[in-house]
Each structure stands twice: as C-alpha cells, then as structure tokens.
Specification:
The relative contact order is 0.18. The two termini are 16 Å apart. The chain is mostly beta strands. The strands form 4 sheets. The chain has a 6-stranded mixed sheet with strand order 9-8-10-17-12-15, with no helix packed on it. It has a 4-stranded antiparallel sheet with strand order 6-1-4-7, with no helix packed on it. It has no helices and 17 strands. Strand 13 and strand 14 form a beta hairpin.
Length: 173
C-alpha cells in the first residue's frame, strides 16, 4: 500500500523499522510505500494537545517494491484560492507516489470557484471537506462531508463558506 498521512491539527510522531523517527505537523504531508513490508507506528507527539489527521491508503501501481518514506512541508499560502498538489507521480514539487494518484489541497474564500480537471482519463476524484462548506457541481457539502466523482473529465467546486478541502484523484480501475 501507499500510505499518505496529513495532520490537520497537532503533531503526529512516526516511527518505523526503516529507521525513520519523525514528527509530522500541520502543513506536512508524509508518504510511505509499504512495498515488501514495513512495521510502523504513529501516535500523538504531545502529552497535552490533541492530534487530528488523515491517513489514506492507496493501492500501489507496482507491487513488492522496496519500502520507502518521504515527508515534506507545504506552504499554506500556496493553496489560498487555488489548488496545491501535495502528492503526485510526476510533479517535482509534490511528494512522489507509486500510483497514478494526485492529492490536492485547497483553501478557498467564500464565493471563489475552481474547475478541477481529472489528471488522467478514467480517473475519479474523492472530494473531502476539511472545514467550511463547498458545492461540487451544485451539490452542497459541509465539514467532513465528501463526494465521489467519476465518469467525467471536469468538476466545478465553489466555496459557499470559507473552506479547506482535499481532492484525491485516482484511477478507477
């Protein structure tokens, strides 16, 4: 599996049998290719503050690869009223993933709109509202709501309130 971790609040400590021991904070994205096998653990880095995070597992494109780990900090201002690609198989500014999958974050002011084009023919998107409210092709979504979109090349996203959201663009086959 390709395992993507995105902290939303607080700090997450990560350890694995590849020798990695790191702290993942808000605005960081971590990816781990489990490949031929890896033992790992994540837990709250703080004894006092809560941690909230997403951990998304994606089927790999190539199986049985050597396990690997990567982490990168992304500037939040680079996603203001635009999409910021944080995971990609072919964007050097993003973290590499062993799949034709793309993760993008957006932080949009109320009233702002973006048209999202699927990265590859046959891909679909999972659009998850982290905070606020959006419309996806006219369908209202609020905090922690999500929509799956497929069999289309484009989707329109409009912030109906100030909103943070994640788009996961993946092959449907």
């Amino acid at each position: 599996m390709e395992i993507v971790s995105i902290p939303l609040e607080g700090s997450l400590e990560h350890q694995d049998n590849m020798g990695n021991k790191t702290v993942i904070k808000s605005n960081d994205v971590q990816i781990m290719s489990a490949g031929t096998g890896v033992v790992h653990a994540e837990y709250n880095h703080s004894k006092d503050d809560p941690v909230k995070f997403l951990q998304i597992w994606v089927f790999p494109k190539e199986k049985n690869i050597k396990p690997r780990y990567d982490q990168k900090t992304f500037k939040p201002e680079d996603r203001e009223n635009q999409l910021q690609t944080v995971v990609s198989p072919n964007d050097e500014n993003a973290i590499w993933i062993n799949q034709d999958a793309f993760f993008s974050l957006g932080k949009f002011e109320a009233g702002k709109t973006v048209e999202y084009d699927m990265q590859n023919m046959g891909n679909g998107a999972y659009i998850f509202v982290l905070n606020g409210a959006i419309e996806v092709d006219g369908e209202a979504l609020h905090q922690r709501d999500a929509a799956g979109v497929w069999d289309t090349q484009k989707v329109q996203i409009k912030a109906t309130e100030d909103a943070d959201f994640l788009i996961i663009d993946v092959p449907m086959n």
